[in-house]
Each structure stands twice: as structure tokens, then as C-alpha cells.
Amino acid sequence: MNHEIKKPRLFISHATTDGEFANAVKAEIEKVFANGVDVFCTSSPGAIPVGNDWLSDIESKLGSAQAVIAIVTPLSIERPWLWFEIGATWSSGRAGNCKIYPLCVAEIDLSSLPAPLNRLQALSLGKAADLKMLFEALILQFGFGKISSFKASNISSRIPKYQQVEVKDIDLNDRNLYSGKYSGYSNEELMEIIDTLLFHPDYDKASKYATLYQGREELIFNGKLLHFRQLDRSFELPPGTARALVVPVAERYGLVPALLTDNVVRFREEDR
Fold first, then answer.
1. Of 251, 256, 259, nearest in space to 225 by CA
2. Structure confidence by residue, pLDDT tens digits, 200-218
3. How far apart are CA 227 and CA 263, in angstroms?
4. N or C: which end of the chain has fewer CB within 10 A?
5. Chain centre distance of CA 33
6. Is the CB of residue 24 less than 8 Å from the CB of residue 31?
């Protein structure tokens, strides 16, 4: 009887522009694990068969992945699809079914990553020691592979300096994962949208009735519980926008989280 061994699956999340970075990592993974890992990387030829629904294909691959490597660059960190792909695996990661490894280009400051990436151990593509840590973690997770086969220089020699990378048109269009009214908006512009739609109405009420502390669940300024995904849907924002930007917008009004999870936030006034 022929028993086919099921390979562990690894998904590399990256912008089309950042294909060189993703493919350099993919090639080294295939070498270290002797092609024993099923690596999905959209920039690889034939990754998504012609005629397939590519979004459904990506969701399927994300859903079955045991590990996700997110290539974080100055471009990808500003694009909603990164948060879509990370968000799609976040609950699985919390349940222990999938591990997420943020891998950042040298131009990214690891200490200033936005949530939820700042809750994970981010590594740098520009540091040989960090790359070795990534491969050691994957070997430990999958239970096989040879770290002696790993060479950081195989990756570093294949990737360009980020300022030399030419941005692909498809990335300027958010890869069409989101095609709503705010497609292509920067984080700064999205923050203004959130400010106008979410905080201004409550700010007017809070200012007018500053001495009234009733109706706790009615005003953001009095502790209303906000659901991030509900906000994205209600305001037609790109997926993951509320989770990334609501807290910094709230700081404009002297509000800080009294409760903050992956899904909800409740604010209180900052101590003065």
C-alpha cells in the first residue's frame, strides 16, 4: 500500500513588488528541507493555475498553512492585503495551529511595528543571525530539516536594497483584495476618515454633556465597546484598518485603551 507523506504547508505573504525577497527565502527553505515542505508563494511561476479564483486559492492556502512568513517592507506594511492575510491566520495562530513569522527588510524598524505584528517576534532579512533563528524555528516546528544546510548568504546575495526596488502597478492597486470606496488611501487618509466617521459625533456629544456620566454603552468617550471588524464593515474600510488605526486616532482626543484585544477596544480618558 502506498502511503503518501503529507508535507507541512508554509505560506509566504508578500507584495508582488517584493517577489525577489519572497523567492530568495523560498529557495533556501526548499534546500534546507529537501523539498519536504509545501511552500506557497504567489510570485512563483504556476503558484495559482490559470483560470482559478486567485482570492479563493489564497484563502484556501492560508487556511491549511502550518506556518506563515510575512515579508514586511515599507510598501507591504501600508497595504490592506497584508492585514487581510495576517488576520486570516491570526485566530489559528492563537489556537496553536499556525505560527506567524514576520520577516522585515533592513529598512523596517522592528521596534515600531504596528499591532498585531508587534506581538510577534519579528526578524530582520538583513541580519544573518535573524535568518538563522527563523530556520531553526521552522526546523523545530516541522520536526525535520538540517540547519547545517542553511546559508544566510544564499538569501542576502539574492535580495536588492529596498530603495532600488521598482513598485509594481498591481501593488499600487492594493492587489484588488479590497475594492471599496477607500481603495488606495494611505494610513494618514484612513485615519482622517475614522476620525470623521467615528469620533466627531461622540466628541460633540461628550463636549456638550461633559458633566453627564450616564449611558456608558452609548458613547466612545464613556467606555463604549468597539468591535474592529464591525467598524471595518460599517464604514466600508479595508480589512484590518480599524485594528491598526483606531487607537492612534483616539489618542488625539486624550483616550487610551482600558481594554484592548485582537477584536475589540474600550477607551478611557488618559490620566492627567
1. 259
2. 877 666 655 544 444 444 5
3. 6
4. N
5. 25
6. no
Q: Left if phi > 0, otherwise alpha if psi is -120 to 50, otherwise beta: which for 179?
A: alpha
Mean pLDDT across the chain, nearest whole number?
81
The C-alpha atoms of residue 101 and residue 118 are separated, in whole angstroms, by: 11
Residue 45 identity: P
Give the burial string for 233-254 (b: 16+ CB within 10 Å, else e).
eebebbbbbbbbbbbebbeebe
- Check: pTM over 0.85? Answer yes or no: no
Three cell numbers, residue 262:
485582537
Distance set, CA 63 to CA 35, 58, 79 (Å):
21, 9, 21
- Among the listed residues 33, 45, 93, the one whose alpha carbon sits nearest the alpha carbon of residue 68: 93
Amino acid in position 53:
D
